[in-house]
Write a structure and sequence with these properties.
about 325 residues; globular; disordered C terminus
């Protein structure tokens, strides 16, 4: 079976606006190809342990891109048109100054190629490597032998096996790494955890490993739900439940800690409703936020009765941990 590979050329700062525009067009699953991820890991591991010299040179010369895949069927044209419309929207919003002084979002050029099933479905495996997850774990795909990376990680780190399939969340991206660090810093043994936008289930699994008594992971994407269930079973965590949901719409679950590795606009949209799923003293960890947009998120948190605990930054991204202060401070709750 043939598939369409629909690629949008962006800059580092253009990734989030483009992903947000795609979501607005109903496209929830996309592949982010950011050379900064590979270059960051190469720098962390030293020399060229992560990438061979020729691969390092090639990767460093690339620009970021976002790829959407569409099956070669009657829905392909609508998907291609939706991607083009999203790119046009971002371009027009940039021209209007809606992204502030940030004007270099990339060319936003859209190209379409036809690929074979196996060609695109397995291509990402060659670059997917183990990554430190929080302070005590390693996230690694099932086909990687951790012994090959024994010099890069402390021997006492526990391994969490993550097969991303077509979902988000390998542990490599800064947003996941930041979320994991804050989750490990602020979770208490026995906490009930809500993971909004669980992707591959990586943070849900980590929460269980860190001592959560109950974990609910939710995602709107079918591929993400399937990947999260598969990965939870593979890691033998039995207190993780994965459900399909649009953020917290219609959700009846009270948590001690909520983690949301999403996008800035979704985090802000979610913040008001998160109060309904936390008691006073509950912790809210959010990521997927560009450092240039953290002030917007912090303002939304304060408006909804949250007190800042920490802001962590990495590679132009940030994650924020906040605590819900007394719920009665708003609207007579």
């Amino acid at each position: 079976m043939k598939y369409y590979e629909i690629k949008i050329e962006v800059s580092e700062l253009g990734i989030e606006p483009m992903l947000a525009a795609l979501i607005c067009e109903g496209i929830e699953t996309a592949e982010v190809n950011d050379p900064a991820d590979a270059l960051f890991m190469n720098d962390q591991l030293g020399e060229t342990d992560y990438l061979a010299p020729e691969d390092f040179k090639r990767e460093s010369s690339k620009s970021p891109s976002i790829v959407v895949y569409a099956a070669d069927d009657m829905t392909a044209d609508s998907t291609i048109n939706a991607v083009k419309k999203a790119a046009k929207t971002v371009r027009e919003n940039a021209e209007k100054g809606l992204f502030g002084t940030v004007t270099d979002l990339g060319t936003l050029k859209v190209t379409v190629n036809i690929r074979g099933d196996e060609e695109w479905k397995d291509r990402w495996k060659e670059f997917l490597k183990p990554a430190a997850l929080g302070f005590s774990y390693i996230a690694a795909p099932p086909w990687v032998d951790i012994a090959d990376y024994s010099q890069e990680f402390e021997s006492d780190r526990e391994i969490i096996r993550i097969n991303p399939g077509m979902a988000f969340g390998t542990g490599l991206h800064e947003t996941t790494s930041l979320s994991a660090d804050l989750l490990e810093s602020y979770i208490n043994k026995g906490d009930k955890v809500l993971d909004v936008g669980c992707g591959t289930g990586i943070l849900s699994i980590l929460a269980s490993k860190l001592g959560a008594s109950e974990v609910l992971g939710i995602d709107i994407d079918d591929e993400a739900v399937a990947a999260s269930i598969e990965n939870s079973e593979a890691n033998d965590v039995h207190n993780v439940v994965i459900e399909k949901a649009d953020l917290t719409e219609g959700l009846d679950f009270k948590a001690d800690i909520v983690v949301a590795n999403l996008l800035t606009n979704l985090v802000i949209r979610l913040t008001g409703d998160i109060r309904n799923h936390l008691d006073s003293g509950g912790r809210y960890i959010m990521s997927g936020i560009l450092t240039t947009q953290q002030d917007k998120v912090i303002a939304a948190l304060k408006e909804n009765g949250f007190e800042m605990l920490a802001v962590a930054e990495l590679g132009g991204w940030c994650a924020i941990a906040a605590e819900l202060i007394e719920k009665g401070v708003l609207g007579g709750e």
